[in-house]
Amino acid sequence: MTGEPLKTGSEMRRNLRNVEFASRVFLAIAVVSLCAAVALLAYHQGVFTRTIRVYFYAGTADGMNKGMAVKLVGFKVGSLEQISIDRDLRVKVELRVDAKYIPMIDSEATVRLTKETLIGANVLELRNGSGDKGPIAEKTILRYEREPALEEIVAALANQLQPMVGEVRQATAYFSNPDSDFRQAVRQLNRTAATLAEAGVEMKRLIVIATDRVDKGEMRLRQVLDTTDGLLKEASSSLAVLDSSLRKVDAALPGIATKLDASLESIRVTSEAMRGILTDELPSIVGEAGALVSDTGEMVRGAKRSWPVRNLLPPSQELQLRLDSGGGLTAHPVENSGR
What we know:
The chain is of the alpha/beta class. The chain has four helices and nine strands.
């Protein structure tokens, strides 16, 4: 019985020593973790980074707070270290700038309080100057500019918009007035729209009628074209016949021309012979015929004076020979103008 309590007491002491060891290990790990966290925080706060101090003076500390970022072209190069006020009621602001960015910032740089976005946090932005005086150094005093606050921007915008609001109100009142030209123009446009709707209906009806007439005209045109096609075919056949006839005439023209030349030569010879007859032989023939007629007249007058013959012959009548259109002689009675 006495051995069991002794065994239990030794086990309890051993368990207590294990718990104590575990507690010490846990405490050591906690201390190391805390130290690492503090070191990391100090690193992020720039404790282990070499920095320089620069200053600027502002009229007010509104919008600025300790620890706010200092940026150059969007990159964080330092932070606001301290804000204080001097006897002249000026706000003195101390900045911590990382030493590695010193060659990039000239001593004529300007510090400007601005916002990262429209509703973002305030930051201090560095804007370089001409760079003639070299980079910044310890305790350099920079110039300060402050962007207009959002309230100031809104107020300025409101002042600019106030005349526009007045004009909009006047325009609204003008448009709301039932006797205004605008309302009358709207009413006129409504009437015009109604008239256009009626005109559209009438136009549709005219389009339907025109389409129907066009269809009918197209049918008639097709008929005319068919008829014209038939006439063209007939004309083509007639032209073919005419072409063959013209070819025959063209082939016969040389013989006809030769015959026509011979006929014209014969007519010329005959005309010359007739001209010779009329100018040379016809006067003599006419003289002889005249004498023959005179003798015949004497004989007839003597016969008429004979009693048996006088009663059988008709009264005597003087005749005159004339040339007819055929070139012959024709006897014509002599007209007695004295009777």
